[in-house]
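Per your request, structure below.
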């Protein structure tokens, strides 16, 4: 079976050691809320505050995952937003944002593992999917409704219709998760410095969260693509 996502030669050459994780599931549900997931989320919030509450903001900067993303974002003059969200939950006592349950399942794993993740309706994805490096001429409508041109050198994922997501600007609007989503695709960007086993555990955490909402859901693909492997 061919992989769901393929790496471009440019991505492999530009970011040796980088990884992209892929999780595709069918039979998913995307209700506005899930009581079972809410319980899991509250447990996770307590765990995050227990794990990181005694640390300072400077201590967090030395976390190996956050350090890897900080290095990537710095070249684009940006700050890793998941780091800021972690601080909000741990230091300000704010809850993990309430959104549609299927998206919340992704956010929860993202905050637990600190790995940048995008979610898509798999039935809205067109043809082959690949990870590439932006030339700066590619454009798309973000999930926030903004027209963006990609930053030259940014990692992005595309299908045969165009951009699905980028590291700096996030997912595209056209393949967003909606209440009618039944097949879902999660993609995880891991810059150099992130271990394969950490990424794999993250994909399984997303899967477990989705199964909390929809126990009947099934995994179609769970894959990791490395920048040193060109298909």
């Amino acid at each position: 079976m061919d992989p769901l996502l393929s790496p471009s030669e440019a991505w492999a050459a530009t970011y040796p050691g980088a990884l992209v994780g892929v999780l595709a599931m069918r039979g998913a549900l995307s209700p506005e809320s899930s009581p079972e997931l809410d319980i899991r989320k509250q447990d996770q919030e307590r765990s995050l505050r227990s794990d990181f509450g005694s640390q300072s903001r400077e201590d967090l900067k030395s976390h190996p995952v956050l350090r890897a993303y900080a290095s990537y974002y710095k070249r684009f003059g940006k700050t890793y937003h998941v780091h800021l969200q972690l601080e909000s939950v741990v230091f300000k006592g704010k809850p993990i944002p309430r959104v549609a349950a299927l998206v919340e399942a992704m956010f929860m794993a993202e905050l637990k593992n600190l790995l940048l993740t995008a979610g898509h309706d798999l039935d809205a994805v067109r043809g082959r999917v690949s990870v590439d490096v932006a030339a700066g001429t590619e454009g798309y409508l973000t999930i926030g409704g903004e027209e963006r041109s990609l930053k030259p050198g940014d990692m992005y994922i595309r299908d045969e219709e165009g951009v699905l997501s980028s590291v700096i600007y996030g997912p595209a609007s056209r393949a967003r998760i909606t209440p009618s989503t039944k097949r879902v695709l999660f993609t995880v960007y891991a810059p150099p410095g992130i271990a394969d086993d950490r990424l794999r555990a993250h994909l399984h955490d997303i899967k477990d969260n989705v199964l909390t909402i929809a126990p009947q859901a099934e995994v179609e693909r769970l894959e990791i693509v490395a920048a040193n492997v060109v298909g």
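The two ends are 13 Å apart (CA to CA).

Regards,
D.
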